[in-house]
Design a protein that fits this description.
- The protein has twelve helices and 16 strands.
- The protein is of the alpha/beta class.
- Strands 3, 4, 5, 8, 15 and 16 form a six-stranded mixed sheet that branches.
- Strand 9, helix 6 and strand 10 form a beta-alpha-beta unit.
- Helix 5 packs across helix 6 and helix 5 crosses helix 11.
- The mean pLDDT is 95.
- The structure holds NADP nicotinamide-adenine-dinucleotide phosphate (NAP) and zinc ion (2 copies).
Length: 366
C-alpha cells in the first residue's frame, strides 16, 4: 500500500469509527471514590502511537488532583501518569515505534513544541500549554484521561522507551517519581563529594535515594520516624535521621549541599533550610495542598536558595530511563488490582506504602 493509500484507509477507518471505547477508573467528583468509567480515546493520527497499558503507578499527585486539592480539577478524572505497556498500533507516519514495542508515558502528552522551553527540552515548562497526561487539555481543548485505563493514544514524540533489562511493572514509577528526582539531582550537580538529603521516604523519596546513590552522592534520609531506617539503608542511604527527634536539626545544621523535599504536607521550611551549607539549595518537589511560609532569615543567613522542580522533559526522561537501565534501577513496588485503588490511596495518605503502588491493568477484566 502506498503512503497516500494507507492515509486514505486510515482516514476512512477514522470516519467510520472516530473513537476507541476505553475502560478505566475515574473520580467523578472531588469527593467521590474512584469507580469504573468508560470513555473514548481518539483513533491514532499520523504521528500517534496506540499503547495497551499494562501497568500504571499511583503517584501522590493523583490523590491531590482526584480530591481537587490544587483547585484546578477537571471531572470526570481518570488519573495516572506512570504508564507502561505495549504498542498496539501506529499512525502512518510514525517512525520511532512499531507494534509490539514496549512504550511508556509520563506526566504530559503534548506541548506547543515551538516556545523556547519546548525547543530546549523543557516541555513541562511550556510557555503556551503543557498537556498533562490527565487533568489537562489537548491542543484542541479535549480533556486528557490518564493511565488508570486499558489504553492510551499519544504522539510518538511524547512516548518513552523502557530499557529491555528492566521489569515493566517496577519501571512504571520511573515515569514520574524517577524523573522528578533525577532532574533536580542533575540540575544541582549531585555526585561524588556532594551531600544530598532526601526529605520523606515515599514514592518520590525512595527513587531519590536510589538515584542520588547511583550518581555517587553521600545520601541522607530525613524521615518522620526511624521505622523505615533499614529500608533506607538498603535503598542506598548512607545516613538516616528521624525528623520527630529535635536533635536531628541541631546535629545536622549546615550539613548539606542539596536537600530534595518530597513531603506532600505543610511543614516548617526554616528548620530544613538551616541544614544547608552556605550556598546550599533546597528544592521543593512535594506539592502540598496548603502553601508553606518562606522564612527569609534562614535563606539570608547562608546565601541559601529555595527552589522548585517539576518532573522532567522528554529528552531528560529518556536519559533517566537509560541511566536506570545501566544501573539496574527500578522502583520498589506493591502490585494491586485496580479494584483496590481507593484502599491504596488511604495507605499512601498514611505513609504506609513500600514504596509505590502499581496497578496491574489486566485486573480491569475481572
Ligand atoms: P508519598 O509516597 O506519599 O511520599 C510522601 C512522603 O512524605 C511520605 O512517605 C512521608 O515520608 C512524608 N510525609 C508525608 N506526610 C508528612 C508530614 N505531614 N510531615 C512530614 N513528612 C510527611 O508521595 P509521593 O508520590 O512521593 O509525592 C510526594 C509529593 O510530591 C506530593 O505532594 C506530590 O504531589 C508531589 N509530586 C510532585 C512532582 C513534581 O513534579 N514536582 C511529581 C510527583 C509528585 P516519611 O514516612 O519518610 O516521613
Ligand atoms: Zn506523579
Ligand atoms: Zn512550548
Amino acid at each position: 500500500m502506498t503512503v497516500s493509500q494507507s492515509s486514505i484507509a486510515e482516514e476512512s477507518t477514522r470516519l467510520t469509527n472516530p473513537t476507541i471505547p476505553t475502560r478505566g477508573y475515574a473520580a467523578v467528583t472531588a469527593k467521590a471514590p474512584l469507580a469504573p468509567f468508560s470513555f473514548e480515546r481518539r483513533q491514532p493520527r499520523e504521528h500517534d502511537v496506540l499503547i495497551d497499558i499494562q501497568y500504571c503507578g499511583i503517584c501522590h499527585s493523583d490523590i491531590h488532583q482526584a480530591r481537587d486539592e490544587w483547585g484546578d480539577a477537571i471531572f470526570p478524572m481518570v488519573p495516572g501518569h506512570e504508564i507502561v505497556g505495549t504498542v498496539k498500533g501506529v499512525g502512518s507516519k510514525v517512525t520511532k515505534f512499531k507494534v509490539g514495542d514496549r512504550a511508556a508515558i509520563g506526566c504530559f502528552v503534548d506541548s506547543c513544541r515551538t516556545c523556547p522551553e519546548c525547543c530546549s527540552g523543557l516541555e513541562q515548562y511550556c510557555a503556551v500549554r503543557t498537556s498533562w497526561t490527565y487533568n489537562g487539555r489537548e491542543k484542541d481543548d479535549t480533556p486528557t484521561y490518564g493511565g488508570y485505563s486499558e489504553r492510551i493514544v499519544v504522539d510518538e514524540n511524547y512516548v518513552l522507551r523502557i530499557p529491555e533489562n528492566l521489569a515493566l511493572d517496577a519501571s512504571a514509577p520511573l515515569l514520574c517519581a524517577g524523573i522528578t528526582l533525577y532532574s533536580p539531582l542533575k540540575h544541582w550537580h549531585a555526585g561524588p563529594g556532594k551531600k544530598v538529603a532526601i526529605v520523606g521516604l515515599g514514592g518520590l523519596g525512595h527513587m531519590g535515594v536510589k538515584l542520588a546513590h547511583a550518581l555517587g552522592a553521600e545520601v541522607t534520609v530525613l524521615s518522620q520516624s526511624l521505622r523505615k531506617q533499614a529500608d533506607g539503608k538498603r535503598l542506598g542511604a548512607d545516613h538516616f535521621y528521624a525528623t520527630s527527634d529535635p536533635e536531628t536539626f541541631t546535629k545536622l545544621e549546615r550539613s548539606f549541599d542539596l536537600i530534595l523535599n518530597t513531603v506532600s504536607a505543610q511543614m516548617d521550611l526554616g528548620q530544613y533550610l538551616n541544614l544547608l551549607r552556605v550556598d546550599g539549595a533546597m528544592v521543593m518537589v512535594g506539592l502540598p495542598e496548603k502553601d508553606n511560609p518562606v522564612p527569609a532569615g534562614a535563606l539570608v543567613m547562608g546565601r541559601r536558595s529555595l527552589a522548585g522542580s517539576a518532573n522532567g522533559g522528554i529528552r531528560e526522561t529518556q536519559e533517566m530511563l537509560d541511566f536506570c537501565g545501566k544501573h539496574k534501577i527500578v522502583s520498589d513496588i506493591e502490585v494491586i488490582p485496580i479494584q483496590q485503588v481507593n484502599e491504596a490511596y488511604e495507605r499512601v495518605l498514611k505513609s504506609d506504602v513500600r514504596y509505590r503502588f502499581v496497578i496491574d491493568m489486566a485486573s480491569l477484566n475481572k
